[in-house]
Amino acid sequence: MAFISQRNMRGWAKSPSVRFRQIKSGYGGGSVSKKVPLRGKRIDIQIDEDTKSIRLGVDKDGVSCSATGTFSCSLKVFQIVGCERIDLEDGNDGWWYGKY
After folding, report:
1. Minimal CA–CA distance to 34: which of 11, 53, 54?
2. Which of 73, 74, 84, 90 is CA-nearest to residue 19?
3. At a CB cut-off of 8 Å and minimum separation 6, what does 46 contact?
4. How far is CA 24 from CA 21, 29, 31, 65, in A?
5. Residue 50: what are its φ and ψ, rounded to 5°?
6. pLDDT by position in tens, the chain (length 100)
7. How far apart are CA 37 and CA 31, in angstroms?
8. Which parts of 1-100 fold into alpha helices (H)?
9. Which residues have C-beta within 8 Å of that of residue 77, sequence separation ≥ 6?
10. Rounded CA separation 16/28 (Å)
């Protein structure tokens, strides 16, 4: 039997993605991977529940995304999309799109 490295088994560091969670205080939060160029910017999160799609993009009135990729958001976002990792694709229009 050959040894298999456990690093990046799920591809977290290799693919652009976002993940949401409920933080200890009861609010919602999230993080984007290094491959998504939204770190350190103010972002908007938009959800289309009919198509189960999400998109993230830069918005001067949006929430702050830290240099490490973490941000706060409504708990409703977490309740809608869940806690699974969502792979994102660059839409070449300033938005990053994914399906949940």
Report:
1. 11
2. 84
3. 54, 55, 56, 57
4. 10, 10, 15, 19
5. -65, -45
6. 677 666 666 654 578 999 999 988 889 999 999 999 999 999 999 999 999 999 999 999 999 999 999 999 999 999 999 999 999 999 999 999 999 9
7. 12
8. 75-81
9. 20, 28, 30, 45, 47
10. 20
